[in-house]
Protein backbone atom coordinates (compact mmCIF):
# COMPACT_ATOMS: atom_id res chain seq x y z
CA UNK A 1 0.00 0.00 0.00
CA UNK A 2 1.48 3.36 -0.98
CA UNK A 3 0.81 6.63 0.86
CA UNK A 4 -2.05 7.65 -1.46
CA UNK A 5 -3.76 4.27 -1.08
CA UNK A 6 -3.44 4.40 2.71
CA UNK A 7 -4.79 7.96 2.84
CA UNK A 8 -7.77 6.96 0.69
CA UNK A 9 -8.57 3.94 2.89
CA UNK A 10 -8.33 5.99 6.10
CA UNK A 11 -10.54 8.70 4.55
CA UNK A 12 -13.13 6.07 3.64
CA UNK A 13 -13.07 4.71 7.20
CA UNK A 14 -13.57 8.27 8.48
CA UNK A 15 -16.57 8.79 6.16
CA UNK A 16 -18.08 5.46 7.22
CA UNK A 17 -17.76 6.48 10.87
CA UNK A 18 -20.41 9.16 10.27
CA UNK A 19 -23.02 6.37 10.13
CA UNK A 20 -22.04 4.78 13.43
CA UNK A 21 -25.12 4.06 15.56
CA UNK A 22 -23.96 4.47 19.15
CA UNK A 23 -26.74 5.71 21.47
CA UNK A 24 -25.20 3.73 24.36
CA UNK A 25 -21.42 4.20 24.16
CA UNK A 26 -21.27 7.32 21.96
CA UNK A 27 -18.00 5.82 20.72
CA UNK A 28 -18.05 6.03 16.94
CA UNK A 29 -15.82 3.80 14.85
CA UNK A 30 -15.36 3.53 11.09
CA UNK A 31 -13.56 0.91 9.07
CA UNK A 32 -12.67 0.35 5.43
CA UNK A 33 -11.20 -2.59 3.57
CA UNK A 34 -9.70 -2.85 0.10
CA UNK A 35 -9.75 -6.19 -1.68
CA UNK A 36 -7.11 -7.80 -3.89
CA UNK A 37 -9.25 -6.67 -6.84
CA UNK A 38 -9.25 -3.05 -5.65
CA UNK A 39 -12.85 -2.91 -4.47
CA UNK A 40 -13.55 -0.88 -1.34
CA UNK A 41 -16.05 -1.72 1.43
CA UNK A 42 -16.78 0.15 4.63
CA UNK A 43 -18.51 -0.34 7.97
CA UNK A 44 -19.45 1.52 11.14
CA UNK A 45 -20.27 0.17 14.59
CA UNK A 46 -23.97 -0.50 15.13
CA UNK A 47 -25.15 -0.87 18.72
CA UNK A 48 -28.28 -2.48 20.12
CA UNK A 49 -30.42 -2.06 23.25
CA UNK A 50 -29.38 -5.64 23.93
CA UNK A 51 -25.75 -4.54 24.25
CA UNK A 52 -24.16 -7.86 23.37
CA UNK A 53 -25.68 -7.73 19.89
CA UNK A 54 -23.56 -4.70 18.97
CA UNK A 55 -21.46 -5.16 15.86
CA UNK A 56 -18.09 -3.45 15.44
CA UNK A 57 -17.09 -1.31 12.48
CA UNK A 58 -14.30 -3.67 11.42
CA UNK A 59 -16.53 -6.72 11.23
CA UNK A 60 -19.26 -4.78 9.42
CA UNK A 61 -16.71 -3.72 6.77
CA UNK A 62 -15.27 -7.23 6.42
CA UNK A 63 -18.71 -8.85 6.31
CA UNK A 64 -19.88 -6.31 3.70
CA UNK A 65 -16.95 -7.38 1.54
CA UNK A 66 -17.53 -11.09 2.21
CA UNK A 67 -21.27 -10.72 1.50
CA UNK A 68 -20.35 -9.27 -1.90
CA UNK A 69 -18.31 -12.40 -2.61
CA UNK A 70 -14.86 -11.16 -1.58
CA UNK A 71 -12.62 -13.82 -0.07
CA UNK A 72 -9.34 -11.96 0.32
CA UNK A 73 -8.56 -8.50 1.66
CA UNK A 74 -5.46 -6.47 0.86
CA UNK A 75 -5.63 -3.91 3.69
CA UNK A 76 -7.86 -2.62 6.48
CA UNK A 77 -8.17 0.85 8.06
CA UNK A 78 -9.94 1.63 11.34
CA UNK A 79 -10.60 5.05 12.84
CA UNK A 80 -12.10 6.49 16.03
CA UNK A 81 -11.73 9.55 18.24
CA UNK A 82 -8.94 8.07 20.34
CA UNK A 83 -5.64 9.48 21.64
CA UNK A 84 -3.73 6.94 19.52
CA UNK A 85 -4.78 4.76 16.58
CA UNK A 86 -7.86 2.81 17.71
CA UNK A 87 -7.25 -0.73 18.93
CA UNK A 88 -9.55 -3.38 17.38
CA UNK A 89 -11.27 -5.75 19.79
CA UNK A 90 -10.31 -9.42 19.98
CA UNK A 91 -13.33 -10.60 17.99
CA UNK A 92 -12.47 -8.29 15.09
CA UNK A 93 -8.82 -9.37 15.20
CA UNK A 94 -9.88 -12.99 14.77
CA UNK A 95 -12.37 -12.15 11.98
CA UNK A 96 -9.66 -10.20 10.13
CA UNK A 97 -7.58 -13.39 9.94
CA UNK A 98 -10.29 -15.26 8.01
CA UNK A 99 -9.96 -13.18 4.84
CA UNK A 100 -6.40 -11.85 5.19
CA UNK A 101 -2.83 -13.01 5.73
CA UNK A 102 -0.55 -12.57 8.75
CA UNK A 103 1.26 -9.76 6.89
CA UNK A 104 -1.89 -7.97 5.66
CA UNK A 105 -1.58 -4.33 6.72
CA UNK A 106 -3.98 -2.80 9.25
CA UNK A 107 -3.94 0.99 9.66
CA UNK A 108 -4.99 2.07 13.15
CA UNK A 109 -6.05 5.70 12.93
CA UNK A 110 -7.54 8.55 14.89
CA UNK A 111 -9.12 11.93 14.13
CA UNK A 112 -5.83 13.75 14.76
CA UNK A 113 -4.22 12.22 11.70
CA UNK A 114 -2.32 9.46 13.44
CA UNK A 115 -2.03 6.33 11.30
CA UNK A 116 -0.22 3.41 12.93
CA UNK A 117 0.63 0.62 10.51
CA UNK A 118 0.48 -2.89 11.93
CA UNK A 119 -0.48 -6.30 10.55
CA UNK A 120 -3.14 -8.91 11.17
CA UNK A 121 -0.48 -11.27 12.56
CA UNK A 122 0.90 -8.67 14.95
CA UNK A 123 -2.61 -7.92 16.20
CA UNK A 124 -3.36 -11.57 17.00
CA UNK A 125 -0.32 -13.84 17.24
CA UNK A 126 -1.23 -17.52 17.16
CA UNK A 127 -4.67 -16.87 15.72
CA UNK A 128 -7.01 -19.80 15.13
CA UNK A 129 -7.21 -21.01 11.52
CA UNK A 130 -8.80 -23.75 9.40
CA UNK A 131 -5.61 -25.78 9.85
CA UNK A 132 -6.13 -25.88 13.61
CA UNK A 133 -9.21 -28.04 12.99
CA UNK A 134 -7.14 -30.77 11.24
CA UNK A 135 -7.03 -34.07 13.06
CA UNK A 136 -6.47 -37.71 12.13
O1 LIG B 1 -12.36 -1.87 17.51
C1 LIG B 1 -13.48 -1.56 17.94
C2 LIG B 1 -13.76 -1.41 19.29
C3 LIG B 1 -15.04 -1.05 19.65
N1 LIG B 1 -15.99 -0.86 18.69
C4 LIG B 1 -17.33 -0.40 19.08
C5 LIG B 1 -18.24 -1.38 19.69
C6 LIG B 1 -19.15 -0.48 20.51
O2 LIG B 1 -20.16 0.05 19.67
C7 LIG B 1 -18.25 0.67 20.92
C8 LIG B 1 -17.74 0.55 22.35
O3 LIG B 1 -17.18 -0.70 22.56
O4 LIG B 1 -17.18 0.65 20.01
C9 LIG B 1 -15.71 -1.03 17.35
O5 LIG B 1 -16.55 -0.81 16.49
N2 LIG B 1 -14.47 -1.40 17.03
ZN1 LIG C 1 -14.43 -5.42 17.30
Protein architecture, described:
With 136 residues, the chain is α+β, with helices and mostly antiparallel strands. The protein has a single domain (3-123), classed as 3-Layer(aba) Sandwich (Cytidine Deaminase, domain 2), CATH 3.40.140. 29% of the residues lie in helices and 23% in strands. The protein is built from 4 helices and 5 strands, in the order αββαβαββα. Strands 2-1-3-4-5 form a 5-stranded mixed beta sheet. It is globular. The mean pLDDT is 97. 2'-deoxyuridine is lined by residues 22, 25, 27, 29, 45, 47, 54, 56-58, 86, 88-89, 92.
Topology of this structure?
Layout: H1 3-17, E1 29-35, E2 40-44, H2 57-67, E3 73-80, H3 90-98, E4 105-110, E5 115-119, H4 120-123
Parallel strand pairs: 3-4
Antiparallel strand pairs: 1-2, 1-3, 4-5
The chain binds 2'-deoxyuridine and zinc ion (ZN).
InterPro entries: APOBEC/CMP_deaminase_Zn-bd (IPR016192), CMP_dCMP_dom (IPR002125), Cyt/Deoxycyt_deaminase (IPR050202), Cyt_deam_tetra (IPR006262), Cytidine_deaminase-like (IPR016193)
Binding site for Zn(2+): 56, 89, 92
Protein name: Cytidine deaminase
